[in-house]
């Protein structure tokens, strides 16, 4: 299985013509599926990065959106306009207007407050949080579970607790916003903090053996 960050605030793979932008998106290649998690802010940048990383938008099987903030859903229409055979999984709390719009271009699936499987070895935590409702991805890998967050607005502790209901969490990647409870990460083998992570430097210093830089073009092979 391989995960490639295709939209992020920073660029990891230099000299490939990739562009950064505020937001987050990564592409999972798991079994025979390609799963896009979030779509960044700017659709033109997202599609350009996908192409330069040798991905065809038409090969994406499904999209999972974490929460209804523009820096995670902004590129959605650019994908849907090029891929006419795709499933989109969103939190049930998404606005009726946005869900109706998505439904005109894709097969829409709504996720409520429970862990839900979206394809083989890939799950969503279901809705978490109160002020900002968000879902995260849970991916089954050989060593346990990898959790992928958009911004982790509901809190890393709550997200990891939900993921732990289906197995042992061994990795965490994505945006970690204002997260500072570093002790929650001490048992993890992989940490790839990106996007809105405020205390990235503290995390990298505390866990030099498990921390990896994020950024557009970063590939994680598991």
What do these coordinates show?
With 222 residues, the chain is of the alpha/beta class. It has a seven-stranded mixed beta sheet with strand order 6-5-4-3-2-1-13. Strands 7-8-9-10-11-12 form a six-stranded mixed beta sheet, with helices on one face. Helix 1 crosses helix 3. It starts with a strand and ends with a strand.
Per-chain topology:
Elements: E1 2-7, E2 25-30, E3 33-37, H1 43-52, E4 62-64, H2 70-73, H3 76-82, E5 87-91, H4 96-103, E6 107-111, E7 116-119, E8 122-124, E9 137-141, E10 144-149, H5 156-163, E11 169-175, E12 190-194, H6 200-206, E13 219-221
Parallel strand pairs: 3-4, 4-5, 5-6, 10-11, 11-12
Antiparallel strand pairs: 1-2, 1-13, 2-3, 7-8, 8-9, 9-10
Helix pairs in contact: 1-3
**Helix/strand/pairing category:** alpha/beta
Subunit organisation of the chains: single chain
Task: Report the order of strands and helices.
Answer: EEEHEHHEHEEEEEHEEHE
Share in helix: 10-25%
Q: How are the strands of the biggest sheet laid out side by side?
A: 6-5-4-3-2-1-13
Q: Could you name the ranges where pLDDT drops below 50 across 5 or more consecutive residues?
A: none
Main beta sheet: strand number and arrangement?
Answer: 7 strands, mixed
What is the alpha-carbon Rg in Å? 16 Å
Basic shape? globular
Number of beta strands:
13
Number of alpha- plus pi-helical segments = 6
Residue-averaged pLDDT, rounded?
Answer: 97
End-to-end separation:
5 Å
Beta-strand proportion: 25-35%
């Amino acid at each position: 299985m391989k995960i490639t960050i295709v939209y992020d605030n920073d660029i990891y793979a230099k000299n490939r013509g990739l562009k950064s932008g505020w937001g987050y998106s990564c592409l999972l290649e798991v079994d025979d599926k390609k799963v896009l998690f979030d779509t960044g802010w700017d659709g033109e940048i997202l599609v350009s990065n996908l192409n330069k990383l040798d991905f065809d938008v038409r090969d994406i099987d499904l999209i999972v959106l974490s929460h209804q903030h523009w820096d995670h859903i902004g590129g959605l229409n650019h994908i849907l306009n090029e891929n006419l055979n795709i499933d989109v999984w969103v939190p049930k709390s998404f606005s009726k207007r946005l869900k109706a719009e998505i439904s005109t271009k894709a097969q829409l699936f709504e996720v409520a407050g429970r862990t839900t499987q979206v394809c083989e070895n890939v799950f969503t935590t279901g809705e978490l949080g109160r002020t900002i409702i968000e879902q995260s991805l849970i991916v089954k890998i050989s060593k346990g579970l990898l959790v992928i967050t958009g911004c982790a607005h509901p809190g890393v502790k709550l997200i990891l607790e939900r993921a732990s209901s289906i197995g042992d969490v061994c990795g965490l990647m994505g945006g970690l916003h204002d997260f500072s409870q570093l002790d929650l990460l001490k048992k993890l083998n992989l940490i790839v903090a990106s996007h809105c992570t405020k205390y990235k430097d503290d995390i990298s210093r505390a866990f030099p053996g498990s921390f990896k830089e994020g950024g557009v073009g970063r590939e994680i092979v598991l």
